[in-house]
Protein 1
Amino acid sequence: MRIGVVTFPGSLDDRDAQRAVRFADAEPVALWHGDHDLAGVDAIVLPGGFSYGDYLRAGAIASVSPIMAEVIDAANRGTPVLGICNGFQMLTEAHLLPGGLIRNERGTFVRRDQTLRVENADTAWTNDFSAGDEIVIPLKNGEGGFIASDDDLDRLEGEGRVAFRYVGVNPNGSLRDIAGVTNERGNVVGLMPHPEHAIEPGFGPDTDAAMRSGVDGLRFFTSALRALQAV
């Protein structure tokens, strides 16, 4: 399976996302924001960073870059798309996911190993989990506060489209502790924490077993492979 990772001006975690794809035994394909060619990939990752310097709004300019027209078409056809941090911001700006992301509640950049609860294990990027699993994923953002109207929040809750929720600490003031959401079809998922930074023992979050031993992030990418193989 071939999973494309899009690089934008200001992307920081594109190489990490490519590495995570490789660890999941898939082939990473580097895609460029200025192209109109997805190179026939089976799934797409929009990585974290500060695309276009976060000018205007985080993810706003990237959401209308040339390749995003292809990403939107692919998502609407059912291709799995994962937006991580800045990529999540792009997905909301492109209206592939509801809501939006605003400046953290306390106005400061947050970096921490964050506990999440898996709320929906039926998406293309979460099927290797079970609903209710608590996982630890690194978080690093300055504009990670998820917002939406009360009606949209109620709809997300009622339709089971909250994919992840913060546990213990709400690090950025996200409404209803929402850390990630999915679209109706379940092929598009966005979240603020960074699963690509929790794929290899010795380099992930601390766990009760050992320092830097957390690898919960790898299951995001193996989930995509399972979803693709099931088609």
Note: The chain has five helices and eleven strands.
Protein 2
Amino acid sequence: MPQPVEIKLHQKSALLEISFGDGINASLSAEYLRVYSPSAEVKGHTPDQAVLQVGKENISINGIEPVGNYAIKLVFSDGHDTGLYTWKYLYELAVEQESKWQDYLERLEEAGYKK
């Protein structure tokens, strides 16, 4: 599994820029990272328990905390800080960003939420 070689937080644009050892680079928005938080609060304990996150358009990342040599914890402006973003999960979010974002937008529309 590729490891991040650089992680930069851009506060003004609310983007987390990640470069992986295999050459994959991604700019992940705070909103994207928040709505795909790996926490039980968002994902649930099973897929049918997942909770659609709404109203996260203006979210920002207030802090990044390293967790060993395998993950980071992100602290969001709404107080959410319970998900551990492993290198594997960050890589998945990076390479599947387009399809995951489209899926999120479709789920918002199905729920009747207008961005």
Note: The chain is about 30% helix and 30% strand.
